[in-house]
Structure formats: C-alpha cells, structure tokens
Write a structure and sequence with these properties.
homodimer
C-alpha cells in the first residue's frame, strides 16, 4: 500500500512507466570514522558505484561483493532491483555527481564533478556552478516513460543533509534519519558543529551550501526546479531528499523561479516515515508549499532470510530509491510477497 | 509453451536471468528496392538503431516513429520489450556491427565496423578481421546474469543469410525465411544470383563470406565460438541465426576450434518454425552436430489491436530476439495473455 506521509491516507504515484535516475556522489564526510554504515568499512566511497552497477546489472564489478552494513544488512538497492525485475523501469541511468570509481556497465551522465570534501573542514563546492549544472540537465534530460524517479546513493548523506538544513537556517537538528538503528550522535554532532562553525550569516545561500552540503543535494535541487516544468519528478528518498526540497525552496528565490510543486512527489519507505529518531514531516513542513509526499508500506515479515528483517527493526531504512521503487511496484499491482520473494531469489543467486 | 524445433516436444531455456545483447548492423543490400519490409521505406538503414533504442528505452529518438512494415505490422521489438517489462533481462546492451545512425540512450559496444556493401556488387567485408573481433568479444564479454540471449536487427538479413549459406556450398536455396508473408522471390533471386556470381571455389571461406555475407553473421559466429566456452548462449532468431551456426561450423575448421554445442541454443518463434516458405530444420540439419533448437508457441489470437494478428498470418515473423524473448517470458511463468496485454499497453501508450 502507498500512503500519504502526513496523514497516512491512501496515496498514489503518477500513472504509467517511470524512468529511474540514480544521483550518485561521494562526500569525504563519509570517511570520518563511525559516521555511516552505508558500505564496506574502509571502502565506503565505493558504495555509490556498487549501487549503480547493481541496480543496472544485478551484479557488481568494482568489488567482489555487494555493499552491506557491518551488521550484515544488504543495501536497499536490492529492493530497487527486485522491483525492476518484476516491472521494469523504462530505463535506468546514472548521474555521476562526484565519484572516485566510475560504475562499470552503466549508462552514465558525466558532469565533470569531483567528490566534495568532508564538511567538518568545509566541503569546498562551487555550489552555484553545480546548481546550474543541475538546472541545465533538468532542461535537457530526455524522458522515456511517463515520469521520472530520482534516487540517490551518497554515503553519510543524512549527516550532510542535516548540516545543509542547519546551515540554511532551518531549526531541524533532531529531524534527520540515519542508516544506523542506533544513531551515532556523538560523531555526528561533532561533525555538524564543526561544519556549522564554518558558516556565517553574511554568506549567501550558495556559499553556505558550498561549505556544509553535498553535491547530490545541490545538483538535484537545480534539476528538479527545471525538470518539473516538463514532467513529474518523484524524489526517491527520505530525509536527504526532504533536505533537497529545502535547498530548492531556498535557492529558487536566488534564481527567481517558481517551483511547479504539482509535478513533484517525495517517496520514501515506511521505515523512514515512521522512524522515531527522525522527523521527515517536520522537515517537509518548513517548505513554502505542502508537498506531495508518500511512503510505501512494505515489510520483510514474510522473509526467509533473517537479516532482511533488520529493515523492519530500523536498520538501513532507505536509499538507492528503495521507497519509490516499492511504491512503483505496488502501483503496478505487485504484492509485498512477490517483491520479498524476488529479493530473496536475487540473494540466493549471488 | 516452449517446444523443440525438430519434434515439437516440450523444451526449455536455461534457468535464471538472461542478459540481452542486440547485434545491430546494416548491409546496403537492404537498400535494393523491394528486398525487405523491415522498416520505413527510404529509411530502412535506420531500423537497427530504432530497434535498439526501443528495446532499451521503450521509445525511439532517431525518428519520430517506430519501425513497421509498409502493411503496418509493427516491429517484433515490441515483443522483446514487453517481456522485458514483465520480467526484465539482467541488462540490455547493443553491439554496433556497422550502423549509419548510432542509437541514442543505449549502452553500445563499438567495434569500429562500417556498414557492409550490397551483396549484389560484393559486400567488401574483411571477414577474417571481423570474425576475430567477434571471437575477442566472446572472450571478454562480462556476463551479468546466468546466460546470454543474442538477438539481431539486420534488415534484408534473410537474403544475406541465404547468400551466405549458398556461398559456403550448402544447398539450401529455398530454406530461408523473409519478413514478407509473400516472399519477393524475383528481386531476391536476382540479388542472390548476382552475389553468387562473385564467389568461386578457389576462394577461402573468409573470402566467400567477405563477398556474400553480412557483418552480423560473421561477427556473431566468432563470438559464439568463444563465448560458449564460458556460458550458455541463446542465439535469438530464425533462419538468419541458423545461418550464423553454419558460418561458425565452417569457420571453426579454419581456426581449429571445437564448438561447445551443449552451451548453445537457437530460439525462434513458432511463425518461423512452422513457416511453409522456409525450412529452418533443413538448415540446422547441415550442421556437424544436432543443435539445441526451440521455438516459443505464442499467438496474437487474443489481441484487441487487429494489425498484431498479421503475425499469426505470417507477416514479419521474427527479429530483435522476439522468439527467444517470448520463450524467456514463458520460462519465467508469464502467460501468452499477459504478454499480449503488455504489448497492447505499450502500443496504446505510443
């Protein structure tokens, strides 16, 4: 079932076939020890490339194994791929928004973007240039199906999303999710404090973002402002994508644009929507409009592979477009049971 | 249902997920007036690019409309894409074996091959070099799923396939299929006669192929000799792919190789298997081994869109891997009815 984030009423995605784009980026923030579990320890910056390879090919090439958390929870990319197997996306393409490792065997859009630096020392992003690159791609992307799902893979992205919101002046410190069940608040808080100490009131929004944000948020904010003029965009993610909406809402004033919010939906998982350690509703309530926002009510209760049930306990939660992919599956008459079985078939085959 | 070509007994594809490769090529033979109906008159050489774009994106970019025959029968690529929508291939990639127009929004393997000339004046192919390129790719292609489906899009390819078999000395003149219900025997015979007049007994097999064949047949023959050492290859097509097996069988003597025929299956449609104007069984019987060969028993009897029923009458018949794709769908528990409905949903959406 697909439900409205705000009131749990029944909701839905647009009709028809969706293209899937993965906004893949690295922020060196992910290399701060203990900040994320989105990947293999010591090789976290590989995660976006592995996620990209996996959703496109159901196989990884840049490393022998698929990314999983240290507790063994496999990447949410599994859900995205399982839905694709049962009801394919019109196409799957990758946006290289600053990667160390180029994903193999993928269709990649290259924007000549480098990984951003760790926010505790300043991200050092040319935010205006990056935002304009996003806008340009939003004007140019050739839609294949009826609408677009835009997912992301950015390890430590919930931390940079929190820094982004705080740097822009939103009072949302406790609202951001994490891939951890037990959020590592100490290292996270230290990182946020250090990042925010580099930001001041005299800076423009672009300067603040260039210091405390990540490539994915800034590029996608530019992208959706333009793309939603032409077609419906489903932002696939949790609190990170909610932060992307904050960025777009703030920057559209700088570039004097209206946002066509009718053509925009945020879609996430129930694990994010109902997470007690974060508050996506509160983030979304800061927007100048009420956004379409939904979650897929999906569960691994029927799974045979025990580690998958960790999702239902709150590990990992979201990423690589999993929530929107599940909603896409439900929209196309797939059942929770079919999707669980397909995920397990993929895992047994690996 | 999937059936054995030779005795109509029940047959099956390998288990698991299949990668899909499309061998796309142009022979200028297709520009001889009246020789093919695989495309839009005057723009036949565009057909492989449009087929590639369509199976990858469910949309064409290089022209406003999808290829269809002059009588309005839409490309068999529709069947391939419909199956992908309901049970996705692990990946879909395109082999550029000599195209005028590069397909847009596709993953393309580029081998620096030019379209071959019309066989009535000599195809002018460096067959040995091309065959070795195919062998090299057969050693290097990185399999994603459990096996590979190799389809083709080569307008007028049944004519060049017939010329190929005859040039190599097989007495199979009446055995080759056509995209026409009523085969244009006059222009076809003239073309074959002219092509064969350029071939003589003193020529090596490579020289004969370089004169009377097409890029797809020669490259794929090299490819399958090597690839079948590593994984199962399903040659997806009718009499053209049967000719490809003849080429491989002949050339493996020149390169002193064994063919691992256990790892090879030809898969086509019932429209080819039961075609009264051609004889795929007889072609296959010329091989030095008995090949795995099957067809998908699929019908448009339940279709709402009348033009689709032309397939059941014998128009178009096969191409772009349609037969193997249908068999892949059946192998994954899709029904004839589901596939027909998906094909119609795609057509209604265009």
């Amino acid at each position: 079932m697909i439900k409205n984030i705000f009131d749990d009423s029944l909701s839905s995605l647009p009709k028809g076939n969706a293209d899937f784009l993965l906004a893949a980026s690295v922020t060196r923030t992910c290399e701060l020890e203990g900040i994320t579990q989105a990947g293999i320890p010591g090789k976290i910056p590989l995660t976006p490339a592995l996620d990209a390879e996996f959703i496109v090919n159901q196989k990884v090439f840049s490393l022998g194994e698929l990314a999983e958390t240290p507790t063994g929870v496999p990447t949410p990319a599994l859900m995205t791929r399982a839905v694709h197997n049962l009801r394919s996306f019109t196409s799957i393409e990758i946006l290289d928004l600053g990667l160390d490792t180029k994903p193999q065997n993928c269709r990649i859009h290259d924007f000549e973007i480098s990984p951003s630096k760790a926010i505790n020392k300043g991200a050092d992003i040319n935010a205006q240039e990056l935002f304009y690159k996003g806008m340009k791609f939003g004007r140019e992307y050739e839609l294949k199906g009826n609408y677009l799902i835009l997912g992301e893979s950015t390890p430590s992205g919930t931390t940079t999303a929190a820094a982004t919101a705080l740097a822009l002046g939103y009072e949302l410190e406790e609202c951001f999710s994490s891939s951890f069940l037990n959020v590592p608040n100490k290292i996270r808080k230290k990182t946020l404090d250090e990042a925010l100490s580099l930001v001041n009131e005299k800076m423009s929004s672009f300067e603040k973002l260039g210091t405390a944000s990540d490539n994915m948020l800034i590029f996608c904010a530019g992208f959706l402002l333009e793309a939603t003029k032409r077609f419906h965009v489903v932002l696939a993610g949790g609190t990170q994508m909610a932060a992307c909406l904050l960025v777009a809402d703030k920057l559209r004033e700088d570039v004097l644009m209206r946002l066509n919010s009718d053509n925009l939906t945020l879609a996430t998982t129930a694990w994010v929507a109902k997470d007690k350690n974060s508050d996506i509703k509160k983030i979304l309530s800061q927007l100048s409009y009420t956004p379409n926002a939904l979650y897929a009510e999906f569960s691994f209760a029927s799974a045979e592979i025990p580690i998958l049930k960790k999702y239902d306990e709150g590990e990992a939660k979201e990423g690589v477009g999993a929530g929107a992919a599940l909603a896409y599956g439900f929209s196309n008459a797939l059942t929770n049971e079919q999707i669980v079985k397909e995920i397990e078939a993929i895992m047994y085959g690996m």
